[in-house]
Amino acid sequence: MSRRAVLLLAVLTLAVVGATTVLVFAERRVDAITTARADAVAQARQRVAEVLSYGADTIDADLDRAQQATAGTFAQYYLPFARSTIAPAVRQAGTTSRAVVSRAAVVSADPDTVTVLVFIDQRTSSKAAPEPRGTSSTARVTMTKVAGQWLISELTPTSS
Predict the structure, then answer these.
(1) Which PANTHER family match (predicted)?
(2) pTM of this prediction?
(3) What is the pLDDT at residue 80?
């Protein structure tokens, strides 16, 4: 075999190995994103409902549960605000709110961050209005994977 043929074979072999490596990593990324989408949507449904559900008699435990569902700047903003502003108002008015995420759809996804649009149905009652009143809204929720768990790192209402 000539030197040229050996060199050409070596170059082709390197090209095939390089292309195969790129394809394997691309497939792993696609698999990771597919898994992230499914897991993050399931957790967004659960965690948004947890954060938006509370009762006058259980507000401290409800906020502790919300703390476990949040991360990053959202947790740094929401939890102090909820403890100092929302909790006293909920206690005073005797408010109960139960939220359910009726639908959820992925807006964008990476292996460790998924943005989800959620449709929320919420029923709220209080001492002044004991008959539960229903409302529907939507929110854009960023779910971030932290220590193997999908947590809310951003929650932005898009309608009310």
Answers:
(1) OUTER MEMBRANE PROTEIN RV1973
(2) 0.80
(3) 94
Instruction: Out of 3.10.450.230, 3.90.1150.10, 3.20.20.70, 3.40.50.300, select the CATH number for domain 3-157.
Output: 3.10.450.230
Q: In this prediction, what percent of the chain has a pLDDT beyond 70?
A: 89
Q: Please name the residues in contact with 29: beta carbons below 8 A apart, sequence gap of 6 or more.
A: 111
pLDDT tens track for 71-85: 999 999 999 999 999
Amino acid 156 reads T
Q: How many residues does the chain have?
A: 160
Rounded Cα distance between 130 and 60, Å, is 21
**Tokens linked to 91:** 């206690």
